[in-house]
Amino acid sequence: MKITHLIFSLEVGGAENLLTDIANLQSINHKVSIIIVNNIYSTSLIKRISKNVEIITINRPEQSINPYYVLKLNVTINKINPDVIHCHHHNLINLLFFRKKCKVYLTLHRNGIPLDNLRKYNKIFAISEDVKSNIRGSYNIISCPNGVLYDNIDIKVDYNFDTFKIIQIGRLQSKIKGQDILINAIHHLVYHLKFDNISLDIVGQGPDMKLLQKLIDDLSLNNYIKLVGNWDRNFIYQNLKNYSLLVQPSRDEGFGLTIAEGMFAKIPVLVSDIGGPMEVIGQGNFGFHFENTNFVDCANKIFNIKNTYLDLENTQKLSDAYNFALEKFSIQKT
Known about the structure:
Blueprint: E1 2-7, H1 14-26, E2 31-38, H2 43-47, E3 53-60, H3 67-80, E4 84-87, E5 103-108, E6 123-126, H4 129-133, E7 141-143, E8 164-169, H5 174-177, H6 179-191, E9 198-203, H7 209-218, E10 225-229, H8 233-239, E11 245-248, H9 257-264, E12 269-272, H10 275-280, E13 288-290, H11 295-307, H12 312-328
Helix pairs in contact: 6-11
């Protein structure tokens, strides 16, 4: 089968990481190509793509309405003549004018997708039941959870700690990812609960970097919190085991790939109690949760996790979480 994945840009992110892993696995048995429409892509991410996958760049300036790039895209697709075009943004089908007859699929990577274009697709994949349930109306939607290349993740074996080290991974866009909630929770832990042998590494880049750094400065938390920028995924996979806890404080999250990665590393995970993350932790059976946007509740849950860290019940919970993630969220299953 000839499969062509179509995406606007290929920067570091959950959807892009998933696409990379899926395309690599598909290329073992199929002829796979990835077409990047805009001139925005990460060279480090492209280096992770198998040589069996053809990478084609259209190099359209972002939001350009020049018809040259649409023509170039359609000529390229006609030359490939794929059996399936798999889109990773709901608007992409509107750029496909001259394609030969083939099936066009869409993956919904988040909530809040406009419904205008959905009926134009032959089939739709939602990354979680939560995303699927948020689409109102009758559409051909299948829930297909995101998957993790878990074999590359080192597993935590030592649960003793001098400093309780927390990690949060995600684009620095606090209205969605909620880093400000976690920063305020750390302030509550340090200055109200007097828990000061604690540190937080926030991994990622994005438009709110200066805003979050100002919040850290204003709350006198520079000794406790670092914005460390983007880390290579292999580095993250090798170092998750060195952390005591992964927190995902998102205000809105369709799935939460980093949560599953933490479960595969056998570190506790704490998430906001919204649909996607709660689905990843089995509605609370395989992870911890706090009330969405409530930084005091977040702080209290971190404090309780720290106080019960070495309990046998907790370590069994981590093994159960690993097994649950293995059953549900391996890239092979996806």
